[in-house]
Amino acid sequence: MTEKTEKIFRPKSFSHSPDRNDFPFEELPLDLKKQKKKLTELSDIEKSVEDRVEALETVLQLVTAVDVALDRLEVNRPGRRRTDQQCHSDHCCINLIDRKFKDQETFICATCKEEFHTICCGFFSAADCSLITSSTKCQACRFPGQFSLQHKRRHIVKVRKTLELMLNEEMILLENAQIEKETLQEMFQQSSGQTLREMERLMRSMGCDCRAWYQ
């Protein structure tokens, strides 16, 4: 994003708005129009990261709910169970999962031709489910004789750890983006009034058109 810009004469006692030397992140462009564009870019980045954080949090909640349901299934823990239509998975958890996650998509295994819930075969996110095609197999057909309930739970633990790491990274990115945007916004606010008039006076003394700088 850093732009190469020409240096202009500026007295040491004067800072134009906002001061590029005070901005602790990327080097700011010199003119106000490009600085405003930079602020818009930071807002877009913030929104993009917020969307990714929200998506990761939703998937992590789903994976956690599946893990809790499989725990109940493994230890045959007592509790009220729903009577929703189970899929062909030996470890279908649709009747044990938190009610808000009970409406899950299904697909037909390309090998055994049976119907399975996406979450019962390790497809949790929208991106995961978008990869399902007519040639997609269930876990039992992909890993014959290997996918026990214990194996599935170990897999869930790995998925959770991966999601938690991804979420942590995105949260750091979000925090940095917010700090950048807020810092630049504060600098714009502080640049009003007397400082702006000094800049206009300086530009006129240099024979510059102030209107061109504002555009």
TrEMBL record:
Per its UniProt entry, which superkingdom is the organism in?
Answer: Eukaryota
Residues forming coiled coils: 160-194
Keywords, alphabetical: Coiled coil
Where is the region Disordered? 1-22
Name assigned to this protein? Zinc finger PHD-type domain-containing protein
Question: What is the species of this protein?
Answer: Caenorhabditis japonica
